[in-house]
Design a protein that fits this description.
328 residues; TIM Barrel; 8 helices
């Protein structure tokens, strides 16, 4: 082997060593990137889980708010004297088989659930057999970030299934309207998608505080939220449906002017053995974690003090029936 051959062999070995080093470096870079991606995915999942948990806790806290948490103002009685008070005898409330009933010879309370696509597939026959009389079905919602209106993925399926099983239905729209015009658009959307369905229970305006920093509805003034509520409900009523407002104690006492909404029925969310909300309501959502045959996930449960399926008079509730019976 000549000196030239030795040099070429040496250079060749160096080239191979360089190639090995480059290959190892590439592998190291790839692994580092992959590790970083995994860390980012895990971090994003953790943040998402924390946010969902926080949102759920805020939601539950709002629904479980007791009226006693608020200090009464000196002029409270005069400020809200035009709002009808709750007249139910709460000692007549009793719970059996996971459902709340308003009992008495003249009582006509109804058992209800409210569902959205989060409940997954539903066997409505089993739901009916469990004792459920009515279902409030989410028809759609407005995104709290994008503001886009969307139809609930399970709406048509749920409406058809509930009707086939003999369950009365009402609907609710999860609103995030920030103006009267947006509330009007939501009402128009709801009305257009109700065509062809026999809706025997109310059509509900469900505006809720989100609690997310990115929510477009944060810090909405009381005046605007009240105007949005009136516009939605009046448009729904004009279309021939029974409007209703979904609210919790905190929202009703702080974020909306209930004195301007007395012509509309209230669906109250308060998670407790008995409601503390002092004003009139027609449906009470008392729990969010019920297990009901035919539904694969936990579900909200309600008691209605009005049989909307047989009532043309908005005041035909169990209390008024009671007073009528007594007067006879």
């Amino acid at each position: 082997m000549t000196e030239k051959d030795l040099l070429e062999a040496f250079d060749g070995k160096q080239d191979k060593d360089k190639e090995k080093k480059i290959s190892l470096h590439a592998v190291f870079v790839f692994l580092s990137i992959a590790e970083a991606v995994v860390v980012l995915i895990l971090a994003a999942s953790l943040i998402s889980a924390v946010r969902k948990n926080r949102d759920y806790e805020l939601y539950i806290a709002a629904m479980a708010t007791d009226v006693d948490e608020y200090e009464a103002k000196e002029d409270d009685s005069s400020e809200h004297e035009e709002i009808p008070l709750c007249t139910y005898d709460l000692s007549r409330l009793t719970k059996r088989g996971g459902f709340m009933y308003y009992e008495g010879d003249d009582a006509a309370s109804k058992v209800g659930i409210d569902v959205s696509y989060f409940q997954g597939d539903i066997d409505w026959e089993k739901v009916k057999e469990s004792g459920v009389d009515f279902a409030m079905i989410r028809i759609g919602y407005r995104g709290y970030e994008s503001g886009a209106i969307k139809l609930d993925k399970k709406f048509d399926e749920y409406m058809t299934g509930a009707a086939k099983a003999g369950i009365d239905t009402g609907v609710y729209f999860f609103s995030q309207a920030v103006s009267e015009s947006e509330a009007a658009s939501e009402a128009e959307f709801v009305i257009s998608h109700l065509k062809g369905y026999d809706v025997t229970y109310p059509v509900v305006f469900d505006w809720e505080i989100i609690g997310e920093e990115s929510a477009r509805t944060n810090d909405i003034p009381v005046r605007i939220l009240t105007d949005c509520t009136v516009r939605f409900c009046s448009d729904i009523a004009s279309a021939g449906y029974k409007p209703m407002i979904y609210t919790n104690t905190r929202q009703a006492l702080v974020h909306i002017d209930m004195s301007e909404l007395t012509e509309y029925d209230i669906w109250l969310a308060e998670y407790d053995d008995k409601p503390s909300y002092p004003y009139d309501f027609k449906i009470w959502q008392y729990a969010s974690d019920a297990i009901i045959p035919g539904i694969e996930n936990e579900v909200d449960v309600n008691i209605s003090f009005v049989d909307y399926s047989h009532s043309d008079d908005e005041n035909d509730n169990v209390e008024n029936t009671s007073q009528a019976d007594k007067s006879e």
